[in-house]
Amino acid sequence: MTTQTSTILLIYTGGTIGMIKDSETGSLKNLNFNDLLKHIPELNLLDCKIDTQSFEAPIDSSNMGPVYWQQLVTIIEDQYNHFDGFVVLHGSDTMSYTASAVSFMLENLAKPVIFTGSQLPIGDLRTDAKENLITSIQLAALKQDGSPVIKEVGLYFEYKLYRANRTTKINAEHFEAFASLNYPALAQSGVNLSVAYNALLVPKDKPLLVHKALESKILLVKMFPGITRQMVTHLFNTELFKGLVIETYGSGNVTTQDWFIEALKKVVDLGIPVVNVTQCSGGSVVMGHYQTSVALKNMGVISGKDITTEAALTKLMYLLATVDPQQDFKTLFETSLRGEMS
After folding, report:
1. Handedness of CA 41, 46, 48, 51 (dihedral sign)
2. What mean pLDDT, rounded, does the chain reach?
3. DSSP 8-state symbol, 301
4. Catalytic residue among 16, 127, 308, 314
5. Is the pLDDT score of 187 beyond 90?
6. Which is it for strands 193-195 and 187-189: parallel, antiparallel or unpaired?
7. Quick one: fold of 6-210?
8. Are 263 and 232 in contact (CB under 8 A)?
9. What SS3 class is residue 76?
10. What is the CATH number that goes with domain 218-333?
11. CA angle in degrees (0–180, nearest 5) for 228-229-234
12. Per residue in 240-272, pLDDT tens?
């Protein structure tokens, strides 16, 4: 493997990684990415060419959403033929959502798009930003026989590269902020970079297709003991949503009370896709395994299998905006499109 001659575009959307402390006030301020090498001189040691591009107005990741996802994929689309790989700097709080969405929006991706960020800003003495950034660039620059090694959307944090649409943020304080409990790491950073070649996504040999249309009218409901009939009836009677994701217990179980099953069936009968995902950090939905999920299976609820909530929501946004109404939506959702489910 080599990084030589690789050209990488570093895209800054916002977040802690792009901030430094003001020496006079001690407050955090956005880093001027035109001066990136001044703050991280170690980047000069990398055997690749790095260019930078920033959102005109970098945002906190809590404000991230479809409009900014469209802006991001537009940058990648415009620069796709000019760079060997892309590294996206993003706030960690919603990184898994954005990275999952981008994985669906970029069909037939044949180059690395690696998301990273940090828990501490670049200027902090104990920052994790430098290692995350440097290694992400190295991974994006890896080539074998002149072709990129990584050909998918990844997320790198604290020595591990994950498939982005398999990740979720699990910790707000530790440097190991992300996990991919249902799929192994694509690469690990130690003394050497170790790539799990058998885990990498192999793209179709077709031109890149960029999908910018997304349907954001999605409702997410998490099951909990004591959820009331009045609340469910109110939510499920709304005409404002076009897709529903329910986070269920264990392997896809819900209450079997008649009022809940009837309310859910009304949604399904209206032709609104309902996706069943587990609220457990790891594991898979297996509808019909317990009696408490048989009714869901019988009424045509979609199995999210081992997909994350982040990927389920963004996949639903993508499919609702792009799928022909004549297609079998349930079968398509239950099929892995970007390696997001087993």
Report:
1. negative
2. 92
3. P
4. 16
5. yes
6. antiparallel
7. Rossmann fold (3.40.50)
8. yes
9. helix
10. 3.40.50.40
11. 105
12. 899 999 999 999 999 999 999 999 999 999 999
Tens digit of pLDDT for each residue in 157-166? 989 999 999 9
Beta-sheet strands, E only, within the chain: 6-12, 19-21, 28-30, 48-54, 85-89, 106-107, 113-116, 143-144, 147-148, 153-157, 160-163, 168-169, 178-179, 187-189, 193-195, 209-210, 218-222, 243-248, 274-278, 302-303
Pairwise CA distance, residues 22 & 279, whole Å:
41
Domain residue extents for the chain: 6-210, 218-333
Cβ atoms within 10 Å of 340's Cβ, excluding its own: 25
Nearest to 305 by CA among 283, 272, 331: 283
For the question of residue 16 being annotated catalytic, the response is: yes
Task: Go through 205-233 and write b for each residue having 16 or more CB atoms within 10 A of its CB, e for each that does not.
Answer: eeeeebeeebbbebbbbeeeeebeeeebe
Say yes or no to pLDDT of 128 above 90.
no
**How buried is residue 307: exposed, middle or buried, by Cβ count under 10 Å (0-12/13-18/19+)?**
buried
Fold match flag (6-210 vs 218-333): yes
Taking the whole predicted model, whether its pTM rises above 0.90 is answered as yes
In this prediction, residue 37 carries a pLDDT of 65
Structure tokens at 248: 């269920």
